Amino acid sequence: MFSGRVWRYGDHVNTDLIIPGRFLDDYDIDSLSRHALEDIDPLFSKNVREGDVIVAGRNFGCGSSREQAPAVLKQRGVGAVFARSISRIFYRNAINVGLPAILCDGTYRLLVAGDIVTVDLEEGRVIRQHDGLKIVFSPPAPHLMTILRKGGLIPYMRDRLRDDR
Questions:
Q1: Rounded distance, CA 121 to CA 158, Å?
Q2: pLDDT category, 24, cuts 50, 70, 90?
Q3: Domains, the chain, ranges and CATH?
Q4: Which of 4, 19, 60, 66 could join 56 via S-S bond, C-beta 3.0 to 4.6 A?
Q5: What are the tens digits of pLDDT across the range 127-148?
Q6: If you average pLDDT over residues 58-81, what whole number do you get?
Q7: End-to-end CA distance of the chain
Q8: At 116, phi and psi to the nearest 5?
Q9: Residue 19: CB partners within 8 Å, gap ≥ 6?
Q10: Per the confidence metrics, is the pTM higher than 0.85?
């Protein structure tokens, strides 16, 4: 469970908007993450805090299979992405880096930028703090929760390989 502020965006936020291609020659994820979402929200990377959530419309993460897109969001401290729909490749890349990507129409309909929410991924609920509004979503499948808890696919596989010895 974690709490954070809502950052709200519309439909079709593509991977080039999440992390512009002109910065991809920098392989340092911390440095690269300072440019997250800067073309649509110049304040995001400067002001996002650990546990903040992104709430978006349809087709979040569309475009190229740029795995840096979810990685920079996680590096900036984003606790989860909630969207009406999420590009398949972004969804898988998000899970791979340990960033929860959740389909939830209610978050887009009911939350506004700046709302403070508490997220319980295991129970599948978002609670808006100022009025207690509860938004329910389908939590990630158990095998995906295991990957997310471990911090992504690589830490998960390291643990599995270590356990298999």
A1: 23
A2: confident
A3: 2-163 (3.20.19.10)
A4: 60
A5: 999 999 999 999 999 999 999 9
A6: 95
A7: 32
A8: -100, 130
A9: 32, 33, 35, 36, 66, 68, 69, 72
A10: yes
Hey, CA dihedral for 7, 9, 14, 19, is it positive or negative?
Answer: negative
Q: Are 93 and 69 in contact (CB under 8 A)?
A: yes
Q: What is the pLDDT of residue 11?
A: 98
The order of strands in the sheet holding 2-8 is 101-103, 80-83, 53-56, 2-8, 116-120, 125-128, 134-136
Residue 1 has pLDDT above 70, yes or no: yes
Helical segments of 34-97, H only: 44-47, 68-75, 88-97
φ, ψ for residue 56 (rounded to 5)? -140, 170
Cα 146 to Cα 19: distance, rounded to the nearest angstrom:
27
**Which of 86, 122, 116 has the alpha carbon at shortest distance from 101?**
86
Which residues face 60 on adjacent strands?
A: 86
Which stretch of DSSP H or E encloses residue 26?
Answer: none
Cα 72 to Cα 75: distance, rounded to the nearest angstrom: 5
The token pair at 77 is 């401290």
Calpha distance 6→146 (Å, rounded): 25
Structure tokens at 75: 């590096």
